[in-house]
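In the design runs reported in the main text, the only information available to the sequence generator was the tokenized backbone. The following block is the verbatim input for one such run; it is reproduced so that readers can re-run the procedure and compare outputs position by position.
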């Protein structure tokens, strides 16, 4: 299901190059703040930082070109995160008919590239890479945190319970099972490397309340794509 433009590593996941000097170490925080600034402006203006068209109005080729030109390619730490989750994304992708790079972008968006995990009360990592909430049907461990939800398009803080896992692999397995078993998310299946279609289907199914969610997911996927 991978886009033909992706270079594949030994695992079948996109091969990421060694980052240029200046992308690692302390500059990771700067890049992360920059991404969050872009996200904030997306919410406020419905467009990208430079005043160009929002992700939803751009072709994949144009979006990837824009991301490459902006210099916001994944940092060394972010690429380490992508390599770590690559086998899990590959396995889940085969079940869902979704490009593994799209699932990697989804996990990166929800977890801050692994740097902002949902934590249990004791501070340990819940490994909940997809921010799945612990609803009435969930019988596993729960991590309660304050999160931002959108009500009529406006952000609001709320205390919510989230699923907690023993490992990132369990998070991928549970997420894949959710998409396969819940009729609301059937539109996200078999979307291949089309991150925008995948995000739109999740948003339509009620997965996220953020009105710009699909655009944000597509933007993260474009950053990963731009690192090829």
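Verbatim output:
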């Amino acid at each position: 299901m991978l886009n033909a433009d992706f270079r594949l590593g030994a695992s079948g996941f996109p091969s990421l190059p060694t980052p240029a000097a200046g992308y690692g170490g302390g500059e990771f925080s700067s890049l992360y703040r920059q991404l969050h600034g872009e996200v904030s402006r997306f919410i406020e203006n419905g467009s990208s930082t430079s005043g160009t068209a929002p992700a939803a109005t751009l072709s994949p080729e144009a979006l990837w070109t824009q991301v490459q030109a902006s210099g916001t390619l994944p940092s060394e730490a972010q690429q380490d995160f992508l390599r770590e989750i690559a086998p899990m994304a590959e396995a889940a992708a085969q079940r869902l008919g979704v490009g593994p790079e799209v699932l990697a972008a989804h996990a990166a968006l929800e977890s801050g590239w692994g740097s902002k995990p949902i934590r249990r009360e004791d501070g340990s990592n819940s490994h909940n890479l997809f921010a799945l909430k612990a609803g009435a049907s969930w019988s596993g461990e729960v991590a309660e945190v304050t999160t931002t939800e959108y009500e009529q398009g406006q952000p609001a803080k709320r205390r919510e319970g989230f699923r907690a896992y023993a490992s990132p692999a369990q998070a991928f397995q549970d997420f894949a099972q959710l998409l396969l078993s819940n009729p609301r998310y059937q539109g996200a299946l078999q979307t291949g490397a089309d991150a925008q279609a995948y995000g739109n289907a999740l948003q339509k199914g009620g997965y996220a309340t953020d009105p710009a969610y699909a655009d944000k997911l597509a933007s993260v996927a474009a950053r990963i794509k731009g690192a090829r």
